[in-house]
Design brief:
The structure holds 2 protein chains of 2 kinds.
Chain A (H helix, E strand, L loop, with lengths): L1 H6 L1 H19 L2 H26 L5 E4 L10 E4 L1 H28 L2 H23 L3 H20 L7 H31 L4 H11 L3 H17 L9 H7 L2 H26 L4 H28 L4 H22 L2 H32 L10 H4 L1 H15 L5 H15 L3 H26 L14 H19 L1 H18 L6
Antiparallel strand pairs in A: 1-2
Helix pairs in contact in A: 2-3, 2-5, 3-4, 3-5, 4-5, 4-11, 4-14, 4-19, 4-20, 5-6, 5-11, 6-7, 6-11, 7-9, 7-10, 9-11, 10-11, 10-13, 11-13, 11-14, 12-13, 12-18, 13-14, 13-17, 13-18, 14-16, 14-17, 14-19, 14-20, 16-18, 16-19, 17-18, 17-19, 19-20
Chain B lengths: L6 H11 L7 H19 L4 E8 L2 E8 L1 H20 L6 H19 L3 H20 L4 H32 L12 H13 L7 H6 L5 H22 L4 H20 L3 H22 L2 H32 L15 H14 L6 H15 L3 H27 L13 H19 L2 H6 L11 H24 L20 H39 L11 H19 L2
Antiparallel strand pairs in B: 1-2
Helix pairs in contact in B: 1-2, 1-4, 2-3, 3-4, 3-9, 3-12, 3-16, 4-5, 4-9, 5-6, 5-9, 6-7, 7-9, 9-11, 9-12, 10-11, 10-15, 11-12, 11-14, 11-15, 12-13, 12-14, 12-16, 13-15, 13-16, 14-15, 14-16, 15-18
Classes of the chains: A mainly alpha, B mainly alpha.
Chain lengths: 501, 564
């Protein structure tokens, strides 16, 4: 039995949440649905830990779905890079669900709660599937599963604010445009090579050499994924979606969905395409690099002036995606490593912060910054968690944010790109401004006398503080994550057929 | 002694505990124990680096014990101890926690053997100390605190930048002697310079210290700047440019201190001037000079704290520290007056007071090395110190014209704190051998030679003369016609006139510059707000169509690259 499970781990990773989703819908009782979702999340997490354990030493698991051999059948291919991303996604799901119980009960009508957890599990399935699969078209399928369920999840915020509906609709349109471009890119790839398996694609591309068709395919894939990961200026769907989604959804998607999209970009860019170095380099350095730098500054500055905490965090996410793209644009081992480690670090940090925002929504009924006055005294634990997360967002030492920025700056200096390194530090200073605004509101104002706010319930505080503790723990014990990220980067590079610097 | 990471850990642990203790005597006693425990941790340790480990491929050392770190650790602990006694009446938990963390951070920084640890504690001193400014809870104090914090954090960011660069260049983050030249060391040097209040980087000091609470400015005066002096002495001994920077530092605050009315601000300027002596000592870099820097920092912390304490006591009792509103307080605050005079005598380097035995080390070192211009400047600056700190402070506060104020004597705990500090000042001045034995280098030096004593006394008396002349001729800025001393030294008038002209010039240039930059900064921020503000184009909710346009643009760009 155990042997059987161990052998089929990659499939179970996706199949279990997929099967559990309709079960939730059938029962449609909020408590039970929650319990199922939670148990499934724990199981997924356990499996991703096992997968990471098997691949950490550089091993690659190739699983043939239904026993069909790869180029024709679908292959699940797990190496240390996607095992690491699987761990992030399932880990965030595990901490989000206990948090969601109270918050969802307050924000979403009772009869819809069962469906909420169904959509949540589908979203989890989609994200895990995108990450684990070794088949390019399969990526598209799972990407759509996760996106469609995310649109539905965002729309459930309508109970609190009707604007969630337009936000979800806009997200639907824009997300679909992105998916369309992505699938057109895949079509071009298929025309050029006649295969859709990632490993085979890479092989065929080296065999057939460089063609213009491939360049077109690359451009389409880049734009499609760029939209999904909120690459500036393709981020326009994100602020509203994150702001108006229910708190638990904001926590989950902010920490996972853009991260998975960044993973897909890394995989396609370095794992599949093997252009002559010049083309790859020019797209990265003339398109990605400037956009990443723009995002770091423009989105951070927008965040400074926001009047709503969730919206502010959303813009800060766009800026943080900028850092990830920057690491990718360096096209070096350290750069890719910085990106991978930032996937983890930003997931932990942003989830903490969105949990704090959600706790404020729960107690105060709003995430407007002006209504957070003096909550540092009324909600000490929640506010302290914000401080921890905020420090990490700025990149203060002893937090994970510092680790990411450290490697990013290292990568920039390795190439001798001084201005870029300076830009990383400068943009962190803007983060001080927007984090400080909240800290000031929380601690340096006295609460309004007629406030009924209370500290958030324990079921919200515990997950929040698990994540806050993780930002500090992995900030001080960076060896764990940096080892995984460094191996992931090396694996990606050793399998790619680009000539690396 | 059990294995402990760093003395800072004790302070931090205690600071975390303090809010849970009943506010009152028990808490104060507990806080008093903290510096004692802190000293006990490092005092018995033989020299070497402890609590070192590897993190992210870098060698971190939390605790380096050698003569230099030991003397600074000791004086920081003493300062923390005294300021806790002085603040016995304070019942504000925020101030208590901030002061403990601040002292702990400064001590932690002193024992740091690598730049990353130094950076962490460096920033911690900035973040914790600002609460001592904010604790006054006024709008003005808040704005001042913000300015202070921004500058201090910026210093930390520069230090971090320097650390990263240093790591890239040398592959090591050890905090050892550096030579100025590479971008890394320049960043680190400027970071130290900001905290050390180098000329033109100094404004935060005079801005923030007088704005802090009564007890807060006593604490503030001890740590931040002396930490920077320590860092310079560790990192850049013998860097020649420091001699000139230090010389300028000893000079320019004198003019400001003379025209300043707020006595705490006068002290802040004279603090700046005293730092100049230490910086010169670091710049000369000979064993004698470095000994002088360490000894002067040691004595300076004591007498500067004593002066801040006595002026603070006056402020505490009368509610003002303005020279023009005070006077005649010796009648009801005789003990405070006495301690203030001891502090004034020490800072003026009267023989038999602590300033004499430390300052003369630096002055002698500058003469030994043939820096005669610097030597002259230092002498002039010494006269200036006596003028504004030695005479002006006690004179305006306790004598001068009678303000009619009859406040009570300072509270007992303040008197105890001032008494201990004053006893230390005199004790060190009379019997300097124990302090000399603590210094980083073995140098036999005798401060009490006829030459030294006479030079110093000459200086002091002429300076006293100048003061009386200025008072009499009525050009002394806060005009107080109460001293009758007949004199007709007309040519002496020239000096104050030139002084007044210079300070007016400097003031006008400074105002013009700051208005200019303020205008540009405001319009810059307005521009950013217009584009990035909630209704700016970058933050607006755009229709889906615009997104498709962007997709097309980026696709176009990427495809275009195929053809180039």
């Amino acid at each position: 039995m155990i042997d059987l499970i161990a052998k089929n781990l990659p499939a179970l990773q996706v199949v279990i949440p997929l099967m559990a989703a309709p079960v939730c819908a059938i029962f449609n009782r909020s408590r039970l649905a929650w319990l199922i979702a939670f148990v499934v999340a724990i199981a997924s997490f356990a499996m991703s830990v096992a997968l990471l354990g098997q691949t950490l030493d550089g091993g690659i698991i190739s699983y043939h779905l239904g026993g069909w051999a790869p180029p024709i059948g679908i292959e699940y291919r797990v190496d240390v890079l996607n095992a690491f991303v699987l761990l992030i996604v399932s880990g965030i799901a595990v901490v989000t669900l206990p948090y969601a119980a109270k918050s969802v009960a307050q924000e979403i009508p009772r009869e819809k709660q069962g469906f909420f957890y169904t959509a949540f599990l589908l979203c989890l399935t989609g994200l895990l599937g995108v990450t684990i699969t070794g088949d390019a078209f399969n990526v598209f399928v799972f990407l759509e599963i996760s996106s469609l369920s995310t649109y539905a999840l965002v729309a459930t915020g309508a109970e609190r604010n009707r604007r969630a509906l337009t936000a979800a609709y806009n997200y639907l349109i824009m997300g679909t445009v992105g998916a369309t471009f992505f699938v057109i890119g895949l079509g071009l790839l298929y025309m050029a090579t006649g295969t859709l398996n990632m490993a085979d694609l890479a092989h065929q591309i080296t065999l057939r050499g460089d063609t213009r068709m491939l360049h077109m395919g690359f451009a389409f894939v880049l734009v499609g994924i760029g939209l999904k990961l909120a690459m500036f200026p393709l981020h326009l769907w994100l602020p509203n979606a994150y702001t108006f989604a229910p708190s638990a959804v904001s926590v989950f998607i902010s920490a996972t969905s853009t991260k998975v999209a960044v993973y897909v970009l890394l995989r396609f860019m370095f794992g599949i395409f093997g252009f002559d170095y010049a083309y790859q380099q020019s797209t990265l350095q003339y398109v990605l690099l400037p956009l990443a730098l723009l995002a770091m500054f423009a989105a951070s500055l927008v965040a400074v002036f926001q009047t709503d905490l969730k919206r502010m965090l959303a813009y800060s996410s766009i800026a943080q995606v900028g850092y990830m793209l920057l690491g990718t644009a360096f096209m070096t081992q350290t750069g890719v490593m910085a990106t991978v480690i930032h996937l983890f670090n930003h997931a932990v940090t942003k989830a903490t912060l969105f949990m704090v925002a959600g706790a404020f929504v729960y107690s105060v009924g709003s995430s407007k910054i002006s209504e957070l006055k003096g909550l540092g005294r009324i909600m000490p634990w929640t506010s302290a968690a914000f401080v921890v997360g905020g420090l990490s967002l700025i990149g203060i030492p002893l937090t994970v944010g510092f680790v990411s920025k450290w490697y990013l700056v290292q990568a920039a200096l390795e190439l001798g790109w001084w201005p870029v390194a300076a830009a990383i530090v400068l943009s962190s200073l803007i983060a001080i401004a927007y984090v400080w605004r909240i800290v000031e509101m929380l601690y340096l104002h006295s609460p309004s006398p007629d406030t009924k706010a209370k500290e958030a319930p324990l079921s919200m505080l515990v997950p929040m503080w698990i994540l806050a503790a993780a930002t500090v723990y992995f900030g001080t014990h960076a060896a764990l994550t940096s080892a995984a990220a460094s191996r992931a980067a090396s694996t990606l590079i050793s399998t790619s057929n680009i000539i690396w610097q | 002694m059990p294995e402990i990471l760093t003395p800072a850990a004790i302070y931090i642990a205690a600071a975390l505990l303090v809010p849970f203790l009943p506010n009152g005597r028990a808490r104060q006693l507990f806080m008093l124990l903290v510096p004692v425990a802190g000293v006990a941790v490092f005092w018995t340790l033989p020299e070497g680096t402890y609590a070192s480990f590897n993190a992210m491929g870098m060698h971190i050392g939390l605790m380096r014990v050698d003569a230099l770190s030991r003397i600074f650790g000791l004086i920081f602990s003493i300062a923390a101890f005294l300021s806790i006694i002085y603040a016995w009446h304070v019942r504000d938990t925020v101030q208590q926690v901030a002061a403990l963390l601040y002292a702990g951070a400064a001590i932690g920084a002193v024992f740091a053997s690598d730049l990353v640890t130094l950076f962490v504690f460096w920033e911690l001193t900035a973040i914790t100390s600002v609460f001592l400014v904010w604790a006054r809870r006024t709008e003005g104090a808040y704005a001042t605190g913000m300015r202070y914090l921004v500058i201090q954090v910026f210093s930390g960011v520069l230090l971090l930048a320097g650390t990263v660069l240093q790591y890239r260049e040398t592959g090591s983050i050890a905090f050892e002697t550096m030579t100025l030249g590479s971008p890394a060391t320049i960043c680190i040097f400027i970071a130290f310079g900001i905290k050390c209040a180098f000329p033109l980087l100094h404004n935060w000091l005079q801005d923030a210290y007088p704005a802090a609470t009564v007890t807060g400015s006593v604490v503030l005066s001890a740590f931040t700047t002396k930490l920077a002096v320590y860092a310079l002495a560790r990192g850049f001994p013998g860097t020649e440019i420091l001699i000139y920077i230090g010389a300028v530092m000893t000079l320019f605050p004198i003019f400001y201190a003379v025209i300043e009315n707020d006595l705490r601000r006068v002290l802040a300027y004279s603090l700046n001037n005293q730092l100049g002596f230490m910086v010169v000592g670091v710049g000369i870099g000979t064993p004698l000079a470095l000994n002088g820097t360490a000894a002067h920092a040691f004595c300076h912390i004591l007498y500067k704290a004593l002066l801040f304490m006595s002026v603070g006591a006056v402020l505490f009792r009368t509610g003002t520290a303005k020279g023009s509103e005070l006077g005649g307080l010796y009648k009801t605050m005789p003990l405070t007056m006495l301690f203030c005079v001891v502090g004034a005598a020490s800072i003026s380097a009267f023989p038999l007071f602590s300033g004499f035995i430390s300052k003369s080390l630096i002055v002698s070192a500058s003469a030994d090395q043939g820096h005669y211009v610097v030597w002259l400047i230092l002498l002039f600056a010494s006269a200036g110190v006596f003028h504004h700190s030695g005479i002006k402070i006690p004179y305006f506060a306790f004598f001068a014209h009678d303000s009619g104020k009859r406040p009570k004597e300072a509270p007992t705990h303040m008197l105890i704190a001032m008494g201990i500090t004053a006893a230390l000042c005199i004790g060190i001045g009379v019997y300097p051998a124990p302090l000399y034995s603590l210094l980083p280098f073995d140098v036999t030096y005798h401060p009490y030679t006829t030459g030294h004593v006479i030079t110093q006394l000459q200086l002091l008396f002429f300076s006293a003369l100048a003061f009386t002349v200025l008072m009499k001729t009525g050009v002394y800025p806060p005009e107080l016609r109460s001293v009758n001393l007949d004199t007709d030294w007309i040519y002496r008038r020239m000096l104050p006139v030139i002084m007044g002209f210079l300070s007016a010039m400097v003031g006008a240039i400074w105002r013009g510059l700051s208005q200019f930059t303020e205008y540009y900064i405001t319009s810059f921020i307005r521009g950013i707000y217009a584009t990035h503000g909630p209704h700016g184009p970058l933050a607006r909710t755009w229709p889906s169509g615009s997104m498709v346009l962007w997709v097309a643009v980026i696709l176009g760009m990427t495809v275009l690259l195929t053809y180039v």
